[in-house]
Amino acid sequence: MLVDHIAAMHRVCFGEHPSEEDLDRLGSRERWLVYRNLVRNRLRHVVGAALPRTNEALGDAFAESVERWFQEGGPATRYFRQVPREFHAHAAASWKTSAPPWVSPLAEYEIARWNVRYAPSNDGPVDEFAFDRVPLLNPALQVLRLSHAVHETPTPSDGYPEQPTVLCVYRSKDHRPVPWTLNPIAASLVEAWIGGEKTVTESVHEVATAHGAEIGEAFVEKLSTMIADFLTRGVLLGARPQ
Fold first, then answer.
1. DSSP string, 66-120
2. pTM passes above 0.70
3. CA torsion sign, 194 to 200 to 206 to 210?
4. Mean pLDDT in the chain?
5. Exposed/middle/buried for 231, CB within 10 Å: 0-12, 13-18, 19+?
6. Is 137 in a helix, a strand, or coil?
7. What does the pLDDT average to over 219-239?
């Protein structure tokens, strides 16, 4: 049966040692052993490309994480762009307990960059921005609340300093993943706008209240500057069509 054939293919590619029974079922034993190596090397390459600094920081432990992932089933997706996300989901918990404390936020940041790079674009209509409309954000965007400022410099030998950091990682107009440090109110606004249904005015009032901020002249001036920056960067596209 086809389902049995597919299961054998999966075991040959991702099992610790392919069984002779599975190799016999598939036929052409030597060809399938070569194919196993090709598949595994291709996946090692793509997860290393998505998490280069995490790979460098962990060294052999990163390779061991990949091998454990293979042995426990490997990827479920058919799409290479989704492979690093699945690997990270599998390995992240163990890195939190077995690696230096800055490795987990570093990996989270790197996988966010990868996800943003390959996220779909907004191909639908966009209305002009207005405070009484529901805002439309760039869909290639993630907000990260990290314990270390892992975006600032390449991995130093002694790791990254502990520094609570809120990042908006978004895909720029020239298709690059860009980190942007947000203040608490800006971060709360972006999070409220992701998939939200409230107008800009409604969400601003809610966020200001939550942060104990008074909506006065100084607040409005800073808000206007921030929204202009959102629009210029392409983080905020405009208003959702009615």
1. HHHHHHTT----S-GGGHHHHHHHHHHHHHHHHS-TTHHHHHHHHHHHHHHHHSP
2. yes
3. positive
4. 89
5. middle
6. strand
7. 95
